[in-house]
Every structure is written in C-alpha cells, then in structure tokens.
C-alpha cells in the first residue's frame, strides 16, 4: 500500500541537520517512509502512482514521540498519591503498597489505558519499566493497540529486613528474587520469550528496579546479561539528593560512580531520572555511552531537583542521549509526552537565567531521535527519513493553537498540545484518527480501568492515612 500525503504545510524531520520542510510530501509504502521532501521533488522521484493520496494542506507532520521512561503497571493509580512526598517516601510508602495489591488483570487494563493515552498524545513508542508478573501482559497490549514499545520484568533482589506498612509477603515473593542469579535467570527467560513479538513492534529488555532494592550484583549483572542477549536494560538511579546522600553514607560515593566503579556502565543502559549527578559523572556517562531518561513532570511533582542540581544540558552538550519520559501517572500525572516538551525547553532557561539553554530544537530531539538513540532503535524510528518506519504525528493547523504561526518548530514546542493532533501513525497505520484510537474500544477500557482502580486502592489501604516520610534503607544493606 502506497500512500502519498501531499502539500503538507511543514515537515519537522529531526534529521541530522534538523531540517524543516515547507510544502512537503510524505510517501508511505506499507510500514515505512519511502520518500520525504519538497512536494515537487517527491512527485518527480515517484516511479509508481500511489494507491491513495491524502491532502496535506493545513496539516503538519513530525516524527512520532518516544517515551523513554514509563510505568504501564502504575496507570490505575492516577491522582491517588499526594503531592507532598519525597521520592523515597513516594516509592516505599505508596508505590510499593499499590504494587502489592494490583493483579495481572489490573496490569493489562492499565497498559491498555496508558497506551491509548499515549497514542492520543502522539507517542508512538515507549520504554516501560515492566510488569510485576510477566512481560507478556504489556506485549499483549502492544499487539492489540498497534503501538511500538519495549517492556520487561520489573525485578529486585534486596528486600528490607522488616516489611513496612502496606507491603505484603506475596508482593515480596513475586517482586524480590532471592538473589541476583535467580533474578537474571528469570529476566533471560522473559527476553527469550517475548523479544521481537508482533512483527518486531514489541521488544523485551533486561529491566530491574534499581536503587536500594537491588544489589550491586544485580545492577551490574543486568547490563551484562542484556549485552549478551543483544538488548538493553533500564533502571532507576540517582533519582534524588536523598538517594545520593544515603549511597554516599553507606558506600562513600554517589550512585552513578558506584555503578561505574563496579563496571556496570555501557551503551545498552538507560538510567531513569538521573537527577543527582556530579560534574565528573557527566563525563563518565558520555565516555561509556550510557543514556538517560529525563522525566520533567515527575521531577516537578516530587521535587527531585532537576533545575537545582540536574545536569541535563551538560549531558546533552557532552553527547549523552537524553530522552524524555513521562514516568508513571502517579509520579507525573500524565502519559502525555507532549506536555514534557515545553517544560524541558523552558525549565533550564529559567533556572539559570540563560535563554539559550536547552532550546526548542534540543527539546524536540529529546522527545524523538535522542529517545530513539536511548532505546537503541534510532536506525528505524525517531526521525522522518526515507527507509525508516512510518511512525509520525499529523497536526491539524486549522486550530487555535496554530493560528497564526511562522516557525513550525517554535509553534510545536511552545504552542501546540495534543488537542490539535489530527492523527498518530505507527508502522504505516493511523492508530489515532477521527478523534479516537481505532484499534480498541476506548470507552470500555476506561470503564474497566475505573472499576479496577477503585478496588485496588481499597485493597492497598491507600484511601487511609499513610506516612509521608521514610527512613527505609537508610541503614543496613
């Protein structure tokens, strides 16, 4: 099937030169971009007539957005956790009890809900931290919706000696493995079972939780195993100054340095958040090709300190692939990656009183091609170039957000929202079109999600008084 989208008002390609085309044409052949360029040039190069021609007047196109860090299994917890929590209290007092009481059914419907939200907001690919049960749950949702994504088996191996309120023995048994070797064996099984599903749209990585709930052996072993299997790994690290200080008190160094000194860095590692970073550690990330998933909304809600201590502009300048992530809906409130783009394009300008820091071009790259680099998928996605997968977003320019505009990039980064998205395409198919995700029954998904979420919150006791501070893992192992 050959589809020509002609006379597009603009095409933001995010290629190596950040080319922005006007009066552009995009030729899609099956699941790939066959050609892109000025309309007249594309027509001149066509040897066969297209099967379908779409009028692109009053439409603009950009690459599909890539969410570099998301928790699909957390989607049913939207607006449950309070907004006065530090990262560690959020995880140990609220997230763990929630995970203790969600079921595999909850995870499936949460994944379906989260994916529909992503498609509505122009996200075409994501990196999910993984299931509490089996990656097959998210893989099934990827298959049914048509999106592209990476998932895994959320794993840890260092439970606290005494279980805090809300933690259950059952949760510890399915979330914490008895040792790193047992965890890695299960993670290998998951990769072999699920990687490459749905014609390659679904990938499975060697994912672990990271931080205090994981031993050093698991951090280092996960990356080594992923390298052997030819996939990636991702985990949380350096997520807050509190975590960094605890690590320094126990091990004498900050989290990144501890992992690097143990030989745990490599090009197939994506570190989620990576807020508490020292100047010299930026060079270590760049040297070893480690990527970073930055989640602006999560940092703002949890007070992680991205604008106070974060070194994301320095990472980008050093050549580190910094992608954007939404995190989970309780941490950030949304899976709309488009909301992250103007934040990252403005937060460092404001914090440093320098308007030329992390400009619109860099923000767009973080949401697309740099996210693809982090996910080791930039050979196929992340930019609009001939030969790449036909993953893109069409914007309706006959919308107040786009009226008027001169520079398409400035308008997209600072003015547009998901309200003006016309269509979201993945693998050559329009998955969001006509105001709905066409592959699923969205109303049924939302109804089921509301039912299951209410029950999970009651089971977890999160509707009652829960502590907002914690000292868990401050001492001991």
Q: What's the quick description here?
A:
This protein is of the alpha/beta class and 477 residues long.
Give descriptors for this structure.
477 residues, four-stranded parallel sheet
Gyration radius, rounded: 22 Å
Average per-residue pLDDT, rounded, comes to 95
Number of helices: 18
* Sheet of most strands: 9 strands, mixed
Task: Measure the end-to-end span.
Answer: 58 Å
Structural class: alpha/beta
The total strand number stands at 17
> Which outline best applies?
globular
What quaternary form is this?
A: single chain
Helix % is: 25-40%
- What amount of the residues lies in strands? 15-25%
Regions with little confidence, pLDDT below 50 for 5+ residues: none
Task: Walk me through this protein's architecture.
This protein is of the alpha/beta class and 477 residues long. It is 39% helix and 19% strand. The protein has helices at residues 39-45, 87-101, 104-120, 136-145, 169-175, 180-194, 216-229, 241-251, 255-261, 279-288, 296-302, 312-318, 329-332, 340-352, 360-367, 369-374, 408-414, 442-460, and strands at residues 2-12, 20-29, 32-38, 52-55, 59-63, 65-70, 123-128, 148-151, 202-204, 233-237, 269-273, 291-294, 322-324, 392-396, 421-426, 429-433, 436-437. Strands 1, 2, 3, 4, 5, 14, 15, 16 and 17 form a nine-stranded mixed sheet that branches. A hairpin with a 2-residue loop joins strand 15 (421-426) and strand 16. Helix 3 (104-120) runs parallel beside helix 4 (136-145). The longest helix has 19 residues, at 442-460. The model has no long low-confidence stretch (mean pLDDT 95).
